[in-house]
Amino acid sequence: MSERARYFAEETWTGGVIGLGYVGLPLAVTMAHRGLEVIGFDVSPSRVEQLNAGISPVEDVTDAELAAALGSGLSITADPQRLTAADALFVCVPSPLGRHREPDLSYIEAAVATVAAVVRPGMLVSLESTTYPGTTEDLVIPAVTNGGLVLDEDVFVAFSPERVNPGAEVKTGQIPKVVGGVSPASAAVARAAYARIVDTVHPVTSARVAEMSKLLENTYRAVNIALINEMAQLAHQLDIDIWEVVEAAATKPFGFQAFYPGPGVGGHCIPLDPQFLAWRAREANVATRFIDLAEQVNKEMPAYTVRRIADLLNERRSPVAGSRILGVGIAYKPNIADDRESASLDVLRLLARRGAEIAVLDPVVGADRIASHGFTPVEAGDDLTEFDIAVLLTDHDALDLEALAKSVPLVLDTRGAYRRHGITGDAIVAL
Ligand code: SAJ
Fold first, then answer.
1. Of all residues in the chain, what percent carry a pLDDT higher than 90?
2. Any catalytic annotation for residue 269?
3. What's 103-138 look like in SS3?
């Protein structure tokens, strides 16, 4: 083991986390919890102020966990110069798509510029933001060696994809971490450092392998969700209950993983990450038909959901225009307040464009956020009898599904929630 790898393996070193969002903050808190010194940096002064006040903006980090970390090794700053005191820098900034669904690396580039300004001999720099294969070599290595530092002697570079499942119980330290150094020397240092942060490190032979493994993980999900969304449309045409079909297939103890239909695919990962791979593939003149088709099918689900609602209203001689429709759940998945890229919003906007009057019940997202989208908030316990139909778009545990089905004439359940809870009734129709 090299001297530098040994340092990370044995000493109490200082980590610098750049970007304190849903990836960076759990990482910083985990590092502090495991006895390391941590400097958390964010470009947003308001976020820094909020964190220093002990208020966590990230659902997966409680205020108590933040307070404990602040009391044992974690300090939060908006001053990038503080990062010169770190031995390792972890870049955890957003990697969204641009207007034409091309990778927007502006956040990564800005963070790498910060790294370039504070990098010093002995540092490990690890990029965690999801991106296309080659980014770490193309962007990080030049930035950290431009000032004269020598790769694998003065500075070590790796990619290690974030694996956060917002809202899930499992914590950062317990999730196996893929770690890919840009060279064997960098890999040894990165592996030693991450072994102090997570229980299981899975080393791979390059940063590209690590970059691509993350994209495979999420492309796998996007493609399989699209497959079941297409199956759901076919099953409906054949008057077959797709939810029962999946439940039956899932009894197979090997070779099958259940995915479920829905009104579309939301969040800041699954709709976006596969497009990083598609973009890189286009550069290499390689077709990515599965990615392209999955995106097409998943993107079409909000319109399919609207057609199903229109058909149900039509059976009751009610046009969509003028109908009072209750959207239930606008978060992109259950039990979290995040509505980014939420397919629920696509469904409701399409209905509003067809003249429906939309109200929204989402006890997790909350009335202010609902109103910010231009929809009328409805609280649990309000009188729901004036609605013509409700559409269950995200099945938060906090929802009283039974009361909902008793209050409105019809509920289109796009999540199979009623079946899962064993609730039946004439008002309930499954996607
Ligand atoms: N969805 C379906 N059907 C399914 C599964 C999901 O319609 O069978 C929809 C969800 O409703 C949601 C979207 O797809 O709108 C994404 O769901 P998700 O469960 O993948 O949730 P994310 O994007 O918050 O988290 C994912 C991680 N999810 C899981 O591992 C279960 C994982 O893929 C990544 O670690 C993470 O994104 C990330 O940060 O990349």
1. 96
2. yes
3. ECCHHHHHHHHHHHHHCCCCEEEEECCCCCCCHHHH
Domain count, the chain: 2
Rounded distance from Cα 129 to ligand 1 centre (Å): 17
- What spacing in Å lies between the alpha carbon of 85 and ligand 1's midpoint? 36
My answer on whether 198 and 335 are in the same domain is no
Residues 104 and 188 in one domain: yes
pLDDT of 381 higher than 90: no
Report pTM. 0.95
| Backbone angles phi and psi of 428, in degrees to 5 | -95, 125
pLDDT, residue 168, reads: 82
Residues 397 and 259 in one domain: yes
The binding-site residues of ligand 1, defined as CB within 6 angstroms of any ligand atom, are: 162-166, 217-218, 221, 225, 259-260, 262, 265-267, 269-270, 332-333
- Clarify whether residues 158 and 262 are in a common domain: no
The CA-atom distances, in angstroms, between 316 and each of 310, 389, 409 are: 10, 11, 10
Q: pLDDT by residue (tens digit) across 212-248?
A: 999 999 999 999 999 999 999 999 999 999 999 999 9
Residue 375 has pLDDT above 90, yes or no: yes
Residue 258 Cα: closest atom of ligand 1: 8
The overall longest dimension of the chain from CA atoms, in Å, is 77
Q: Are the C-beta atoms of residues 165 and 333 closer than 8 Å to each other?
A: no
In a domain, 32, yes or no: yes
State which of 190, 205, 220 marks the end of a domain.
Answer: 205
Q: Are residues 258 and 348 in the same domain?
A: yes
- Distance CA(210)–CA(190), nearest Å, equals 12
If we measure between CA atoms, which residue out of 165, 163, 285, 264 comes closest to residue 222?
A: 264
Confidence of residue 166 (pLDDT cuts 50, 70, 90): confident
Q: What is the DSSP string of 243-259?
A: HHHHHHHTT-SSS----
Residues 198 and 323 in one domain: no
- What's the pLDDT band for 256 if we cut at 50, 70, 90? very high
Mean predicted confidence (pLDDT) in 76-102: 96
- Whole-number Å distance, alpha carbon 111 to ligand 1 midpoint, is 26
Domain with 86 in it: what CATH number? 3.40.50.720
Q: Answer yes or no: is 191 within a domain.
A: yes
Ligand 1 atom closest to 130 (CA): 40
In a domain, 170, yes or no: yes
Residues 195 and 313 grouped into a single domain: no
188 and 306 in a single domain? The answer is: no
Q: Is there a domain that residue 288 lies in?
A: no
Structural domain containing residue 134: 3-205
Q: What is the DSSP letter of 84?
A: G
Separation in Å, CA 100 to CA 168, 223, 279: 31, 21, 11
